[in-house]
């Protein structure tokens, strides 16, 4: 069953890769642009070949017209000057002559807009370098009642240079305020410890030290800017073009591709977090299962990394830093410590120490535990969908989940919880195989390649491995293959989907080496060109609806701390739209329970659960704080707000610790297999213990019981 689907997927992928690369081959290129010196311009060639790839192989190619031009214009300037601290409104007016001409420039293979925008940005960069030195040379008045807008979308661009300098004054004051508040916290803790030396500094000394730290931050920032190459700058422009097609279509400069390859290997010497640059901030997109961050437990998806320190060294700000440069600082050798200063979604600042380590591969695989609450309920956690196509007999998630189900059945599980929370996806064939464990044979997902009829991927095995009560847990970080499994089991009425609406990524990407596309002629001397990641396919549910954009809406939605964060596919720039195709033919499961009754019982439990009430309240307060993006620059007000946020977080943590524990245990078969391997046995027991206080697992267990 697995090998059949794997061969189909590999066959489709190979055909697609060959077709695209063939379409990109330029043995006799029409793009040879001679400069006055007779040298072919690398950026011109790169622009031409990327545009040819986009327009010939993307799932839904953009029409290169004035609308495309406006999108590129807006997206590039948004990313070039995220916080509106460099370019003035007068500068934007100057650049607007290109607003409707970028499409024509792209067709010609020229980049006049990029050249002028880069030149203007460089000039403002030099001017603002003088601003921070002058402003930070004098103490700030933190008793003055003034505010600053922190949401880039709400910030008004400065009209002229005078307004630009005033914007810098408030911005630097805000950053100094944050440093000063942190120092005052340290001083308060020193007083509690009786450390008289640390506690002896006056307010004036602390304020001066805070300005010195911010000064160092900008010295580092401008030094990095001076080291930025033309290739770095052009990569930003290329991605403003590719991302108008969709958020997952990207250009990788040669160095960026190397970073992408490292992230895809599954073996990382570092902290094990997938990062993304968004609106000038380095955000945690995903925690790699089994990694140092995963085991340390404090760094979460949605956190914003503000600073990075090597061990006890002085932290370096990564605000406004290129993603690849931030990653270089965070990565490091096994056994070394990195200290991350992060801003949590609730606004609190936290320093998280992480010892870099290689991913423990076993923790990326499917694991299970038994919950003994009146009835035995099996729990399976799948951190990601994985498959080893390179080695015969290599592990794959579909087969591993099948084995876990079999073990749970042998140990008396009457119902099963499949936890796909924060599972970003992976192997499509395994999503098909996994869904088939719980239904008779039938379609699981439809996959469409542009210009072709959708292909229906089916479970061809008529056997049902487990036919008892089933709950699938999802959240807003569940994506791609996770959404396929949840959608299929929901469409079949086979499982109760529980949690929060999923991410909404219903597309497939392929990465193509541009050096293979550009062979011969003058191109060899210009290599390397990098790579192009293209969206080439789209997923559809068996009911005909796309998982793209809308994701999967749970049957039972539970309060979610992250529900108000803009983190789904719908919140990205220019995502592909939701649509629908013809439904596949399938026979729904006939459950022996009523969904409306199940929902009503869950709603009653959740309404009376203090932990869920606290989650809902925190989510509402977070929404209020996000919307109220103006921050006070008055020290007393700022510190009152920070302390209030911390107290709310502590109350929730205390409530979580006080709730009753589920009676969980590692599987007897796993412990028997571990035998004298105390490390492996400890890992099994720790896994079972980690779910005891999880309020979402508590509710999932209750829902399973409602189905019995």
Automatic annotation (TrEMBL):
Residue ranges of domain PDZ in the record: 261-331
One GO molecular-function entry: endopeptidase activity
Coiled-coil ranges (or none): 609-636
Keyword field contains Zinc-finger: no
Keyword Ribonucleoprotein applies: no
Pfam families, alphabetized: DUF3340, PDZ, Peptidase_S41, TSP_NTD
InterPro entries: ClpP/crotonase-like_dom_sf, PDZ, PDZ_sf, Peptidase_S41A, Tail-specific_protease, Tail_Prtase_C, TSP_N
Keywords: Coiled coil, Hydrolase, Protease, Serine protease
Gene Ontology terms describing biological process: proteolysis; signal transduction
Gene3D superfamilies in the cross-refs: 2-enoyl-CoA Hydratase, Chain A, domain 1, 2.30.42.10
TM spans (from-to): none
A GO cellular component annotation in the UniProt record: outer membrane-bounded periplasmic space
Family membership: Belongs to the peptidase S41A family.
Protein's name in the database: Tail-specific protease
Phylogenetic placement of the source organism: Bacteria, Pseudomonadati, Bacteroidota, Cytophagia, Cytophagales
